[in-house]
Design a protein that fits this description.
With 331 residues, the chain is an alpha+beta fold. Helix 2 crosses helix 8. The strands form 3 sheets. Strands 3, 4, 5, 6, 7 and 10 form a 6-stranded antiparallel β-sheet that branches. It folds into 2 domains: 2-132 and 245-330, no CATH class; 148-215, PDZ domain (Pdz3 Domain), CATH 2.30.42.10. The chain has 10 helices and 10 strands.
């Protein structure tokens, strides 16, 4: 809880005072572009959310039953195509249990998600990742963001762009890309070969390390294509299936860690908020004082989250107003 709160405060400070800093919190929804992450497809979202929710909620239920707390209701949720799950322990029995027992029940959901995140991370590194590399071969590095007033932008490069070579060195995978950029120093001449042509510019100083060169590009991903022998032998279905499964495992890692950690925030009715209130009730003898501290910390967390979500909310507002602005221009 302390770690995720510290990360949220630090990320919010960076967002407010450091140019080009990304929000510390982002909505994981199809169509919402999150810096550093690939696009989330609708079906990856549906399947991953269902798995994350089922594990989270039923972990609460299992731990409640271990402490002999009745389950008031449980089951699966269906909101159109969106699948979920719920478990509702009997609240009157829960509050009568010891503070450690209550904390264990509240922590079971986030903890199970974090454990599952590590499991899928292992699967990605041992199974799905190596399988993907056997079926696909890298052809370049996709760049989704060109930072303003930096060398790449000043050279006229626009995102999205795919880099094939840096200073005559191939960049067909992440390792080659890192090797090609590792030796670049400030004021070095940099030559890029991309899918939009060739560019030459002078590297700037890296904001995090003045001894390193800086190109002014961000949000990298590997551009890959199925290997020809695989296509000739199995057709296009196998490579597409491997890519889909590999991406699902990736999003299961991201969502399990993200949702597990977010639920540990000391915020209102979520697991972390209930854990924090239980802790305050154990520290302060006066219930009103405990709830005042809990309310203040919850409001503080909510404010930080709103600040981080503000860029996405503004984009949503612009998207909603877009038809009306087009109508006004026609009028």
């Amino acid at each position: 809880m302390a770690l995720i709160l510290f990360m949220l405060v630090k990320g919010t400070f960076a967002l407010l005072f450091i140019p080009e800093a990304a929000p510390a919190v982002a909505p994981v929804l199809p169509g919402v572009s999150v810096p550093g992450l690939p696009n989330l497809s609708f079906w990856h979202w549906i399947v991953a959310i269902f798995i994350v929710a089922v594990v989270h909620e039923f972990s609460h239920g299992i731990w409640a039953r271990l402490y002999k707390i009745k389950i008031k209701s449980s089951g699966f949720l269906f909101f159109g195509p969106i699948l979920g799950a719920f478990v509702e322990p009997e609240e009157k029995e829960l509050v009568k249990k010891s503070k450690p027992a209550q904390l264990a029940v509240f922590a079971a959901g986030p903890f199970s998600n974090i454990v599952l995140g590590f499991i899928f991370l292992l699967v990605m590194n041992v199974v799905s990742g190596p399988l993907y590399e056997k079926v696909y071969e890298g052809t370049g590095i996709n760049i989704e963001t060109i930072l303003e007033n930096q060398p790449a932008a000043q050279a006229g490069i626009q995102a999205p762009v795919t880099i094939y070579e840096i200073n005559n060195q191939k960049t067909t995978n992440a390792e080659l890309f890192l090797n090609a950029t590792a030796g670049i120093k400030p004021k070095d001449k940099v030559s890029l070969v991309t899918d939009k042509g060739s560019y030459t510019f002078i590297a700037a100083e890296n904001p995090d390390n003045k001894t390193k060169g800086f190109l002014g590009v961000a949000d990298f991903s590997l551009k890959a294509e199925p290997r020809k022998p695989i296509i000739e032998k199995y057709g296009s279905f196998l490579p597409a299936s491997v890519a889909w499964i590999n991406m699902l495992v990736f999003w299961l890692v991201v969502m399990n860690f993200g949702i597990g950690l977010f639920n540990l925030l000391p915020l209102g009715p979520i697991d972390g908020g209930r854990m924090f209130l239980t802790g305050m009730l154990g520290i302060f003898k006066n219930e009103k004082t405990a709830k005042k501290v809990w309310g203040f910390v919850s409001f503080f967390c909510l404010l930080l989250i709103f600040v981080n979500l503000a860029p996405y909310l503004w984009k949503l507002v612009l998207f909603i107003l877009k038809p009306f602005t087009l109508l006004l221009t026609l009028i």
